[in-house]
Amino acid sequence: MKRRIGITLFLIFILGFTTHAQEDCRLYFPDTHGSVREMKFYDQRDRLQTITRHEVLEKIVSGNIVTVKVRATSFDDSEKEIYTGDLEFICEDGIFRFDLKDYLDPAQLGSYEEMGVDITADNLAYPSVLNSNDQLPDGSIQMVVKSGGATIVTITMNITNRIVEGMETITTEAGTFNCYKINYDISSRVGFINTNASATEWIAESVGLVRSENYNRRGRLTGYSVLTNLK
Fold it and tell me: What's domain 7-230's architecture?
């Protein structure tokens, strides 16, 4: 692809609860204001397709919820800006999650900008504690493209069989990271056309996605992404 917590006793309770909430939340994304991470997306022939940069705008702790607000900007292979928007990554009750709408290709969304687009999506969740052979919750997203009130096309994507395979050390231009390796299946439907694929991702605490690889139903690599800068 081209490619989201007497007066004295009260204060002690609130401060203690907030600290506990942050300790329980393992964020698989940077949370320091001003942090920037860059991902580059390549096709199966190692040709650069798109670049995405995420800048952390704000971290908000409210009770047991930690929210990281992020500005995402995508560029084409010549670094011409093609999309910018704001995202949220949330940790609540020890579960890190983000909206699956963030999985959509900005270039694809741009092609429908003059039409009506209705998007419904689940949150993709990562428990704070990940162990080998853990099965993570599934996720799905549906995009309905309309024109003049009539539906032109419906696009659905389901992410299933998310399994934690274990830990691996991954080295990229951005550094060396201890990552969780997660495999999953992707089934998509565009109109009447069904496609099955699979993917592997490597994520690190306080860093996020370090590398991902996408495969077709025959197991052949169709594209990958790599973390190329983190500051």
Answer: Beta Barrel (2.40)
